[in-house]
Specification:
Blueprint lengths: L1 H6 L4 H12 L5 H5 L5 H26 L7 H9 L1 H31 L5 H9 L1 H20 L5 H29 L23 H4 L1 H5 L15 H30 L10 H12 L5 H20 L2 H14 L14 H15 L1 H4 L3 H33 L15 H20 L12 H24 L16 H11 L28 E11 L8 E10 L4 H6 L1 H13 L3 H4 L2 H19 L4 E10 L1
Antiparallel strand pairs: 1-2, 2-3
Helix pairs in contact: 2-12, 4-12, 4-18, 4-19, 5-6, 5-18, 6-7, 6-8, 6-14, 6-15, 6-16, 6-18, 6-20, 8-14, 8-16, 9-12, 9-13, 9-14, 13-14, 18-19, 18-20, 21-25, 23-25
Length: 614
């Protein structure tokens, strides 16, 4: 398997298309069609200040921590500590939870257009109670299917992505070309200004939602190690993918603006109305129900696939001691059942906003804005954290690096992403002038209270952590600053001498360590092959640990996990890694960090090597 993984590499165009598939969705096109020709400016601006920086920064961070789990929790936590790392991944999970009602609203509207009567279809699509019922039925159906752990869901998603997004996008553009080429009258003024009217500040709020179109590009960073010469080829893939994405969004938005007058654009219905109008023009109205089903299938397939996906990250982090045991429960299929049920209850409560908002599209817009706000907080942490790590972990290996020398290019790219995210964050609070959102009090209350509650929740949970929250089966690697702290605690003069094998070394004394009243407990000896070529060297290691609490019984109970963690750590070491005094001191730090992770608290304060034979 190792040989296969090394030989299979992603090409530039392949990764570019993967990024396009992960980002492109047609449901947001009507929001930008409001702006006519200037919508192209917004797409291009957001790509430059957000899409490209997100892709490049995430690639550096993903490659930097490729062997450690946690994703954005790891990236932010390495920079700012566990609290903010937990905040980042919590926001990522909650954001996706809030996203479900918005995407399912679009699915409900698409299903409403299956009928052949335009008047009836539009009335049904505008009915809040219909939308509420469809959203809840489909979401809970997807949840229960996810709890079954069905493997075929991934295949459904692939088909749904092609049938529900790629094909309709291409068809929409082709229909616009046919319409104009055959003499059709464009409803969009192509003589307008490319640059928007910045003096009308409240017009910019819909433009800020473009950032949500591009959200999720950080996931593509995990593939940076799957490319040949990533330093050269990954940026190429990013720029090609960004160009294709912008072209699809711009031409798709223009296609809607060509067939629908600006005053008639509706955020939830206009995509379906646009197809209806084009099909009528080419005398193929019978295609309208088919495209409606295709779009709905694309939405439903995506939700079915991802309803359990975003919760997996928070589940893995939760098992490391960040969530109570209740949230760590799985069913017989290994699916995080309690997190999914809590997620479902949150979706249900959010969906009830249908009843209090003045219209379906106002509900759609306010939840979209809340989603943008929460996601942007996570991005602000990610961009600033990447810059901070250039100084805090400046010697750490970076298989992919923004800029071959110095930190100037990271400041430019990361700073651009941070400033763009901050600008969109501020704009997202402003009620849009194009949509009747009802009372501004309700608008601000939902956004401000929503942000405060969601941001405060992970800090409250973090402050309430208990050692009993750590799952006995979790193996979550310590942060670099934890290893450094343990290094300082375990540092001691080390002398190599004797041994019964070539290169043998033995720790003979640690009398220079600061005195401590801690209890010293023995650990069973371990013998393991080192990772040197040919596997010709092995390490025989005996250890005792000094602890600040009586954990002797817990060490016995966790013996299997401790041996496994230490063996896995040692098996990844070469003779060169451990042959020097500094290498041994670092190894002590890593062992102590692994043990404290298993014990769920900082119980091990020193590690003593009683045997060290190579």
């Amino acid at each position: 398997m190792a040989n296969i993984s090394k030989s299979v590499k992603l090409g530039v165009f392949t990764l570019a298309i993967m990024n396009v598939t992960a980002v492109v969705s047609l449901r947001g096109l009507p929001a930008e069609a409001e702006y006519g020709l200037s919508s192209a400016f917004y797409y291009l601006f957001a790509a430059i200040v957000f899409l490209i920086p997100t892709s490049l920064v995430a690639a550096e961070l993903a490659a930097m921590f490729q062997d450690k789990q946690g994703g954005v929790f790891r990236w932010v936590g390495e920079a700012y500590g566990k609290k903010f790392g937990f905040l980042a991944i919590f926001l990522q999970w909650v954001e996706s939870t809030i996203w479900y009602p918005t995407v399912l609203t679009f699915g409900a509207v698409a299903l409403a257009f299956i009928g052949m009567s335009d008047t009836h279809d539009m009335a049904l699509a505008s009915n809040r109670y219909y939308s509420l019922a469809v959203v809840l039925i489909i979401y809970w159906l997807a949840t229960f299917i996810s709890l079954k752990g069905m493997g075929w869901v991934g295949k459904v998603a692939k088909v749904g992505g092609m049938v529900g997004t790629i094909i309709p996008a291409g068809l929409l553009m082709v229909l616009a070309v046919i319409y104009l080429a055959s003499g059709g009258q464009s409803q969009m003024n192509f003589d307008g200004n490319f640059f928007p009217d910045f003096s009308n500040f409240d017009n910019l709020v819909l433009a800020s939602s473009i950032f949500l179109f591009y959200a999720g590009m950080e996931m593509g960073g995990i593939h940076v190690k799957d490319m040949e010469n990533p330093a050269k080829n990954y940026p190429k893939a990013v720029f090609i993918g960004a160009a294709i994405t912008v072209i699809i969004f711009v031409l798709g938005t223009f296609a809607l603006g060509i067939i629908i007058p600006e005053k008639d654009i509706n955020l939830t219905q206009s995509l379906l109305v646009g197809f209806d109008n084009y099909f009528k023009y080419v005398h193929a109205s019978w295609l309208s129900p088919i495209i409606a089903v295709a779009l709905a299938f694309g939405v439903l397939a995506g939700v079915l696939t991802w309803v359990a996906g975003p919760s997996k990250g928070i589940f893995a982090v939760g098992k490391a001691g960040y969530l109570p045991p209740f949230f760590q429960k799985t069913n017989a299929n290994g699916v995080q059942k309690n997190i999914l049920l809590i997620q479902g209850l949150a979706v249900t409560l959010l969906s009830l906003l249908f009843v209090v908002m003045p219209s379906v599209q106002s509900f759609y817009q306010i939840l979209s804005q809340l989603t943008v706000l929460l996601y942007l907080i996570m991005y602000l942490l990610m961009f600033s954290g990447a810059i901070y790590l250039r100084y805090n972990m400046k010697k750490a290996p970076r298989p992919f690096r923004i800029g071959s020398k110095g930190n100037g290019l990271m400041w430019l790219i990361g700073g651009l992403g941070f400033c763009g995210s901050l600008l969109a964050f501020v704009l997202s609070f402003i009620p849009p002038s194009q949509i009747a959102v009802g009372s501004n009090t309700v608008w601000f209350a939902v956004l401000i209270i929503g942000c405060v509650v969601v941001v405060a929740a992970p800090f409250i949970i973090y402050a309430s952590r208990k050692p009993s929250w750590v799952d006995k089966d979790t193996q979550f690697e310590p942060f670099h600053w934890e290893e450094q702290a343990t290094t300082a605690q375990t540092a001691a003069p080390v002398s190599g001498a004797g041994g019964n094998a070539p290169g043998a070394a033995r720790i003979e004394r640690q009398s220079d360590l600061p005195r401590s009243a801690g209890q010293v407990l023995p650990l069973p000896p371990i013998t393991v092959n080192l990772s040197d070529p040919g596997g010709r060297r092995y390490l025989k290691l005996g250890m005792e640990v000094e602890v600040n609490a009586d954990v002797s019984e817990e060490l016995k109970a966790q013996n299997a996990r401790i041996r496994d963690a230490v063996i896995m750590l040692l098996a990844g070491k070469s003779y060169a890694d451990i042959s020097t005094p500094d290498g041994k001191v670092l190894l002590k730090a890593e062992v102590a960090a692994r043990l404290n992770q298993i014990l769920g608290a900082q119980r091990v304060i020193r590690v003593y090597f009683t045997d060290f034979v190579v």
